[in-house]
Amino acid sequence: MSQKTAWLLYKTDQGLPQLLTKALQQGQFKEVSETHKQDSWNLYWKACGFTHSDYRNVKGWQILNHFPKGNTITRKDSLARCLKRMRMVHGAVYNFFPVSFNLPNDYTKFLSYFTKIQNKKGKQVWICKPQTYLGEGGFFCFNSLSDLLYDGSTVVQRYIDDPYLIGGYKFDLRLYAVVTSYHPLRIYVHHDGLVRFSTEKYVGSMLHNKFAHLTNTSINRNGPNYNLDKERVGAGCKWTVSQLRAYFQQCSIDDRLAWERIKHMISLTILMQANSIPESAKQCIELYGFDIILDRNLKPWLLEVNFTPALGNDCSADVSVKLPMLVDLLALAKQKIILPRPVTDHRRKNNNLSRKNMLLKEEQNLLGLLFRQTKELTVLRRDKPIKAN
Fold this sequence. Notes:
Layout: E1 8-12, H1 18-26, E2 29-31, E3 43-45, H2 52-57, E4 63-64, H3 76-90, E5 100-103, H4 107-121, E6 126-130, E7 140-142, E8 154-158, E9 165-166, E10 169-182, E11 185-189, E12 194-197, H5 210-213, H6 217-220, E13 238-240, H7 241-250, H8 256-271, E14 286-294, E15 300-307, H9 316-336, H10 345-383
Parallel strand pairs: 1-2, 1-3, 3-4
Antiparallel strand pairs: 5-8, 6-7, 6-8, 9-10, 10-11, 10-12, 10-14, 12-13, 14-15
């Protein structure tokens, strides 16, 4: 007779994406209900961060899906600032991030650099990324200061204007990394990922054509060519990384160095914030989405890191990548959950027998000690009688 597997409980404050719900079911998690005890949940999943009290009160059988202070690398301004500092300290090993400036604070430095590069190489393309970017709005390319318009905190970044193209279309990568521990640092990179294409052919001079320059799915799904069968790319705007690597192999392109560089890039980026994560944060796990672009020489460049990356289901590529990735993530989470052993009648009986045996053994030891002491005292009295004064 097969042993029945116990289901674990998850808790959430909002509706979950369909793929995550399916992965939870496959991983034998069910949602906590009012009939369960207040602290009986095993996994607490939130799209946003947790409070200090959440981290302070977490139990050994519970996991939170975010680390405290684990979002440093996911803020555009903070990522740019940290990578700039690491490049100054450690040199070329951190040369995988385009030159960036945080506006308005770094506007004077940006203006000086912009003018210097323009005088030396002519007009260069930059991309503007507002810190509060959501959905379609915000990102735009420019090569003239008169076109730079922003309201609030913004990152301006050198644009990778020589991207590797497939069929004339630009693309970037979304790769998934899971951190299970910062002390020591343990990172797992999922073997597959998403390749996100623009839906119009790349022309460097057409800066205002967002369907040619931007690869965001939220933008390109509304493009006029989204459903068309595009050269080499096909319909839609997504491949899997497995498809991309098969394409490289078909074209006799050796991509092994690029993937080694990507793994090092992910490790070095996450390593930057390791010292800020409290060592007491043991019952946590974190999923990051890394956006990376390849230039025409297959050199990878980090664009940004996503906190709680989107888990929506837009096409078959999403299902084939995200569902197995989430199943693997939940398997890693289950390894960190320390379940209290239930006290069954059999264990209770064995515990009672063990306790009785222990008491009996203690009695025997005590009686043996008293017997030896009494025997020694008798011998002493017989062999060495006490003499009267």
